[in-house]
Design goal:
- The protein has 500 residues and is an alpha+beta fold.
- 27% of the residues lie in helices and 27% in strands.
- A five-stranded mixed β-sheet has the order 1-3-7-6-2. It has a four-stranded antiparallel β-sheet with strand order 4-5-10-11.
- Strand 8 and strand 9 form a beta hairpin.
- Helix 1 runs parallel beside helix 4.
């Protein structure tokens, strides 16, 4: 029953007479590194009136994002309608296609939607981004629900990192190419006896070479050792590295649509989120912080009734926040959170519900403002060698590293309360997930602030005269007690309070 609730390279050339041994040693010990990286998000610049349509994306599990910029719709005569349509934010489980493919198809399908494109030109385009992240646990595993939650957060973070790069990217790079060919002339003193000190140096080198060959399981006369001692006609080494650093304040971003695809292979399980920021959502953010007027629109249904009508299975695939219009025409913020119990007891279920509440509050706080920092580094290296026997060898490797961070400082945030709770089994696992729909608005914040002031004024927590002052107050008004309802049900409800 649903209920509203709230190498150090040893290239020091000892002597030309030792060069042949040194060459064999270096080539035998040389190793090349390999690696892969995550493709950097496209962050081509956009200007008012510019639109970048997301290109095709694979169903791989690599985090990525694609962006498009669309003009915000102009307010219609007689009021400001909430973002586009009542389908905003409704999620779904993708079948057949990956979540990223479905998300990009959704955005492309909105290109000619009049609700999205009422105004093609203007100084303040709406930002739209598709953020993608893998679900890193297969369905049925103990951590699948947590992996879904992390995937959603990562997808939003990937979308925001792309926005951060668009707003404030600082790029540095370095490249180097080193080419060598030929060999030095033989030393005229070759073959002559070495001074005692150099004989000792040569012996030390020989011992080092033998030890290294032994460690690697190579015999001096083996095919591998002879292969390492082949004459190199020329060689080239190339290296490239870049770093992109971006940091930007963000606010007013909502998860407009959520898509999820999952399978037993985590490589094909992912979450894709269509994230948007418009002047209207920015206006709501300012109003919630007391920095601007509250936007209004065409009255819709009560938020709790809307959530119930949407259905629990749809809410299972809805996360983050949405900007919506309530039954009074006030533009409000709706937060969503969900969690799975870490056990089978009633306590575990209650814990899941409380965590769902907290996740919804966290999503609301992120909407009000955050600072996003993205620091990514790419390095690519390659080696080329041409041998005297005609063989050419090319080796390459590289690394990619990225760190994205979002942070919001502590902020007083009264007025948010859960208005609907739900539970639903995940279709891929059968695991029951518990969720919370939380309402936050300027009017609810005002009500909370007023109640907080009244309760603080009433006092009582800090002690004092207490009941000694009772005689100075008028006697209470007598009221007739209510009779409790009778029934055959094994359940029941608590006593109802007096009429307010």
């Amino acid at each position: 029953m649903k209920r509203p609730r709230y190498t150090v390279l040893a290239t020091a050339r000892i002597l030309p007479v030792l060069s042949s041994f040194l060459l064999a040693f270096l080539l035998a010990c040389e190793e090349s590194t390999g690696g892969g990286g995550v493709e950097l998000a496209d962050s081509a610049a956009a200007s008012p009136g510019f639109e970048r349509v997301p290109g095709p994306t694979s169903a791989s599990a690599s985090p990525e994002s694609t962006a498009t910029f669309i003009q915000d719709s102009a307010p219609p005569a007689g009021g400001v309608a909430i973002e586009f349509s009542e389908s905003a934010g409704l999620g779904e489980m993708s079948s057949g296609k990956s979540a990223s493919e479905r998300a990009n198809e959704f955005v492309r399908g909105k290109k000619n939607d009049p609700d999205w494109q009422r105004q093609q030109k203007g100084p303040n385009p709406m930002w739209v981004e598709v953020g993608i992240a893998p679900i890193q646990a297969p369905p049925g595993s103990p951590g699948f629900q947590e992996a879904r939650t992390r995937a959603y957060m990562s997808a939003m973070l990937n979308a925001k990192s792309s926005l951060a790069k668009f707003l404030s990217a600082e790029v540095s790079q370095a490249m180097e190419r080193h080419y060598v060919d030929g060999k030095p002339l033989a030393d005229e003193t070759a073959g002559e006896p070495l001074p005692p000190i150099l004989e000792k140096a040569a012996q030390i080198f020989e011992d080092m070479l033998d030890q290294e060959l032994d460690r690697r399981g190579l015999d001096r006369d083996s095919a591998a050792a002879k292969e390492a001692a082949r004459e190199v006609l020329n060689s080239e080494r190339f290296s490239m590295q870049s770093r992109i650093l971006a940091a930007a304040e963000m606010s007013g971003i909502q998860a407009f649509r959520y898509f999820e695809s999952s399978s037993q292979s985590s490589a094909s399980s992912e979450v894709a989120v269509v994230a948007i920021r418009s002047p209207k959502s920015a206006s709501l953010q300012a109003a919630l912080l007391g920095k601007g007027p509250v936007p209004s629109g065409t009255p819709q249904v009560d938020i709790a009734e809307w959530a119930e009508s949407v259905g629990d299975q749809t809410l299972l695939f809805t996360s983050g926040v949405q900007v919506r219009t309530d039954e009074n025409g006030e533009v409000v913020l709706v937060g969503f959170g969900q969690a799975a119990p870490r056990g089978k007891s009633g306590n575990a279920v209650q814990g899941a519900r409380r965590r769902a509440d907290d996740l919804a509050r966290m999503a609301i706080r992120i909407f009000l403002g955050e600072k996003v920092v993205d620091d990514s580094m790419t390095r690519e290296d390659s080696n080329f060698k041409e041998y005297a026997d005609g063989e050419e060898v090319f080796e390459s490797g590289g690394t990619y590293e990225e760190r994205v961070k979002s942070e919001s400082a502590k902020m007083k945030n009264p007025g948010a309360s859960p208005v609907y709770t739900w539970s639903a089994p995940h279709p891929g696992t059968g695991e029951t997930v518990y969720g919370s729909v939380m309402l936050f608005s300027a009017s609810s914040a005002r009500a909370a602030n007023t109640m907080f002031a009244d309760l603080s004024k009433a006092g009582g927590a800090s002690g004092g005269e207490g009941t000694r002052a009772v005689g100075t107050n008028p006697p209470p008004v007598k009221t007739k007690p209510r009779q409790p309802a009778r029934g055959d049900s094994s359940g029941g409800s608590g006593a109802e309070g007096e009429e307010p």
